[in-house]
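Hi there,

I know you've been waiting on this one. I reran it after we fixed the sequence typo, so this is the corrected version. Both the input and the resulting structure follow.
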Amino acid sequence: MPIIEIHQFPASDAYITNQSAAKPVLDSVKGAEGLISLYYGLQEEDKETGYFVTVWESFQAHKEFVLGPINFGLTNKFAVLHAEGPQAQCRVRFNADTDAAFNAPITEFSFIKTRAGVSAEQRQEVIDNLLSALGTIPGIHAPAAFGETKERPGVFVLTIGWESLENHAQVAQSENAMAIIRKMDSVAETTVAHVKLTRHE
């Protein structure tokens, strides 16, 4: 499976007003060796957190990009897109293809940190049940994908494509979903974000 880098940043007013302001930066990255695709968007919950999502052939391809000349020239271009504040990046090799999730009208990113005292087996059992249940839900752009972050062992990302925020909200209120959510909460701390991603061509 490819490597996905998820980059979150406090968005500038220019980016909040018009996400296409990112295109000059993304145009610079587009020709990088080993890059498969890239996406940009804004988080729906706060309308202030920007997202860049890049898909790479391998960890090595991403490493060579980071150390290469294209990346060195991005700092000034990127400066107009972000406001003051911390940024976050992680790289994930997901267990399933992410094209459907990233090209859906709404993309969910759930950042999952295993609670202390919970074994990997306990956590994985809950995740497997969740992924199985998601495969039967109307409005899902299957498959959902799950993977561990390279930078923070024990922290995972679940990504799901939804038809709409309303669709996700309706599903989350069902009895079966509530039971799964309670079980997930017992084994992990979860932070959920929804983003309208646009693929950069």
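Quick highlight: The chain has a mean pLDDT of 92.

Best,
R. S.
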